Amino acid sequence: MPSLSESNNTDDKSFSTSVQSTDQLWEPELPPYPIDTHHIQQEHLCTWPISNSVEMNTLDKPYDSKAPVSESYDDLITEEEVIADSTSYHPSSHLQTLEDLPQGRHLGLYSTIILFISRILGSGIFSITSGIYIDCGQSPFLFFLAWIIAAIASFGGLYVFLEMGSLVPRSGGAKVFLEFIYTTPTLLATVAFSIYSVMFGFTISNVLVFGEYFIHALGITITPWRIRISGLLFLYGAALIHGVSVNHGVKVQNVIGALKLVLVVIMVVMGLYVTILSPNVTKLQSHLAWDDFWQVKAKTNLSSFSSAVIKASFAFSGWNSVHTVSNEIQDPIRTFKIAGPVSLAIMAVTYGIINLAYLIVIPGQEIVNSSTLVGSILFERILGKSLGRHFLTFAIAICAGGNIFVVIYTISRVDQEVFREGYLPFSKFMSSNWPFGAPLRILILSCAITTVIILGFHEGDVYSYMVSLEGYPQQIAIALIAVGIFIIRKRYPDLHAPIRAGYFGTIAVLLISIYLIVGPFISSTSPNPKGLESWPNYGLVGSICVFLCVLYWAFMFRLLPWWGNYELVVEETTLSDGLTIKSWIKVPCPSDSHHGPLLGESVG
Asked: What PANTHER family does the record point to (predicted)?
């Protein structure tokens, strides 16, 4: 349950009600960008019905500062409490103001580009090629089409996020964007996506790929348990560095990011070497012929192709995560405007060249059988077994490891934003930066979830299944944010974003996302990876997870207050390091109030 507690405030009877109707209560009246509502330290959310016939008195008394507060380490907390009038409360009213965290703004343009590239260039291009090729029926044409669709969707999605990020320049990414766009039903979008973010706050694929490539580079016999243990040990080390020192964690990310840039150059040079020069020069037989380019060699369908596009999108997936750390970026609007497109363009060109090299150098059947080692096979063929296997395979492991560093860094920031809002149990404890000035507790939670999943599931191609499962709810969020671009432009016609997404690009993102959302359900065959056909459809599992998040919101913020005849007050507190967090306090409704509409029913 969220951190709800009973209030003993004797002034509870003076809670005001609004002359506005229920439909009007939560509609924001935002002034032109930017706005400043920083003076509101505590907000008032009324969960009981409001009728046009009910009078209200403005509540201008400060909240009782003697309300009970949890003990333990929280004796470091200092509280600043002011209750805003219930009619002025809106959950997204503060989102257009810049917010500085205790960590400070320590990421410049170079660090942000490194963050983008480190997040994008992970395990995808080296490991999921085999799965994409299989899903496309071993057709080179469909293979490249899947990558092209993923690249278009990524560029379109990037500019959608850039526009929303320029309007809402705060940490949280998709969470704060949805909160800003979808204001009714109250808190639905933000709570549902927040719970989803914590549920999927793990990094399965990169851990497995790091473990496999690391073992392969050492020349040790590869076993599932060695892969898992190696990957998990690296994850724990990365979490410890980030959890003990923010600055040292960023420095390690930048070093690994520089190594990734070197690897990108090597990959491009090798790809051009193979694709431009003739086989007589390279001494490598070409396995890609024009006559076979259009041929579909194995069974495929629309559902499998949608799975291939999702896997390819996973290789670009870093573009939608860097906004989660906006509060730590210097001049975030300008920095994102430059860093985002530059980073994604670099990676799109690199992926195109390296994928062409895969099909030229490696026979199709060998790609099918290579699982997650297709990148290593390519390097061995071009540079020889010794250099290709040991040096570059180890470099790929470092790339996957660098992705682990960035992923858990962004996960910790998103989850910290969620816990700061008080939607989940132990929010005050989990969101704190104590004792090292970093979100160590959230990093431990992410490591625990990752460990349970990796050690608990062994059969079949769990790697590809988790990639598809992670990506499915993200496509739902991206589709909702793409629709939100048009909602915001219509709602606030005078609000001009510093960065604008193109109309056709936004439509393309929306259509591709819808296709990826419905794709797993429109085929009679399972879209799951080979060996996991008996598992539930990943689209169905992802949809159930989203539904459970919505159900949590309905239960905690609609049903329980309605049944218990209480309302919720947001109590905002400030920790000793300056970090602000919220707690939801139960306050009994006035004795003359009545149970009102449930889950959006109209007032009678």
From this structure: AMINO ACID TRANSPORTER (PTHR11785), LOW-AFFINITY METHIONINE PERMEASE (PTHR11785:SF382)
